[in-house]
Amino acid sequence: PLAANLLAKVGQAASDNIKSSYGRNADLTGLWNSTMDTLKCCGFNNFTDFRNSPYYNSSTSMYPPQCCGNTNNPCNQTVAESTMTAGCFPKIKSLVDGNTVVIIAVALGIAALELCAMVVSMTLYCRIKSTMA
């Protein structure tokens, strides 16, 4: 239940982020475009995440081209619905699930490195303190 609640909050934050900033904030727009191009997905859940976003409102109710399979045709609701491009969340979740061992190994490696750095710094501190006394 805790993980499901966390994922729901992350999903809501991502959708809200798209609605408020996609098309207005160049960095965020570029990040979403890159993610959608790489994973071949559209929005966090689907194309409806872009409704009422600055991009949608300024482009006369058009969706990003990734939502329509990057066709040369304008990406309106009809084309987006017929293309049925999946949202990015399931693809990101699948990517994380497939690389869980690597993610855990990297996290443990970083933790071990931090622990070693703390031991070295405490050893140096004690030696410096003993030479000054």
UniProtKB/TrEMBL annotation:
Regions that span the bilayer: 101-126
Keywords: Membrane, Transmembrane, Transmembrane helix
Keyword Translocase recorded: no
Gene (name only): Nfu_g_1_019451
Main location: membrane
Family matches, as InterPro entries: Tetraspanin/Peripherin (IPR018499), Tetraspanin_EC2_sf (IPR008952)
Name under which the protein is recorded: Tetraspanin
Organism in which the protein naturally occurs: Nothobranchius kadleci
Gene Ontology cellular component annotations, sorted alphabetically: membrane
Cell compartments where the protein resides: Membrane
Signal sequence segment: none
Membrane topology of the entry: Multi-pass membrane protein
